[in-house]
Amino acid sequence: MQIQLIRSATLRVTVNGRLFIIDPFLAAKGTVRSFAGIAPNPIVELPCSPQEAIAGVEMALISHLHVDHFDDTAVALLPKDLPILCQPGDEEKIAERGFTAVTPITHSHIWQGITFTRTPGQHGTGEVGQRMGQVSGFVWQAAGEPTVYWAGDTIWYEAVAKIIRRVQPDVIITHSSGAKFGDSDPIVMDAAQTIAVCQAAPQATIIAVHLESLDHGTVSRASLRAATDSHRIPTSRLLIPLDGEIVNL
Q1: What is the DSSP letter of 127?
Q2: In 16-143, at which residue ranges do the beta strands (DSSP E only) sit?
Q3: 3-state secondary structure at position 13
Q4: pLDDT interval class at 182 (50, 70, 90)
Q5: How many domains does one find in the chain?
Q6: Domain that holds residue 47
Q7: How far is CA 35 from CA 32, 128, 134, 135, 176, in A?
Q8: How many beta carbons lie within 10 A of that of residue 227, not counting itself?
Q9: For all residues of the chain together, what is the average pLDDT?
Q10: Which whole-number Å values give the CA distances from 127 to 121, 152, 156, in the listed order?
Q11: pTM of structure
Q12: What kind and span of H or E run contains 7?
């Protein structure tokens, strides 16, 4: 298995020779509205061209429809007959944008020998969390490959802990930017919550992404590494890839 971080939550994943893209956010630097009133988003460029980011992909997996997970550039560039897997409730809006092979996953779905199982998420707390709407993560499993739990845009809460206990994933992908609006609580995991994942899954490799790409993020790669170092979490257990970096598993 190979996982390449493109930027933010966008990943190119190869499993059993099949290539899919996760949450394609392909906009040029500064072309999307600010989320925190600090700077237009994204705050960094892609490490490659948008065309290179989607080259060869056979499917797109979309956790939810916030602009930093499925944007106009991706809509324009992705083939309209590309298979798309999404959470229930998003399929009509994706189809309205011209895509003809959209499959909502209520529980699980098999694509090219890979089983995708949808998992719940909580995109913040209180009124902010309600306003952010429904989000999903996914577990994927294939014969001879590590079991991966991509938590998606969620904070650390009991449902995430239950998934880890039940699935016992080999790899967990966290969104760890600690993004927030003003004085709100984080709407995705921060450093402390990422540490909680590491402690709950001592058997797993954690890959922290969704960092240093949007203006409402509060956690940098360096600050996350410093926090995990202080808890004696080995660098071999918590990977913090740079944009464009490839992780082989």
Answers
A1: H
A2: 18-22, 59-62, 84-86, 102-104, 108-111, 114-120, 136-141
A3: strand
A4: confident
A5: 1
A6: 2-248
A7: 9, 13, 19, 18, 17
A8: 18
A9: 97
A10: 15, 20, 17
A11: 0.97
A12: strand 2-7
H/E stretch holding 14: strand 10-15
How far apart CA 86 and CA 103 sit, in angstroms, is 6
- Helix, strand, coil content of the chain in percent (nearest 5): 20, 25, 50
Give the dihedral sign, CA 131/117/153/188.
Answer: positive
3-class SS at 200?
helix
- What CATH number does the domain containing 38 carry? 3.60.15.10
Instruction: Look at residue 183 in the predicted model and tell me its pLDDT.
Output: 87
Location of structure tokens 């930093």 = 68
Q: Across residues 151-176, what is the average pLDDT?
A: 98
Angle 195-137-163 (CA atoms, 0-180°, nearest 5)?
60
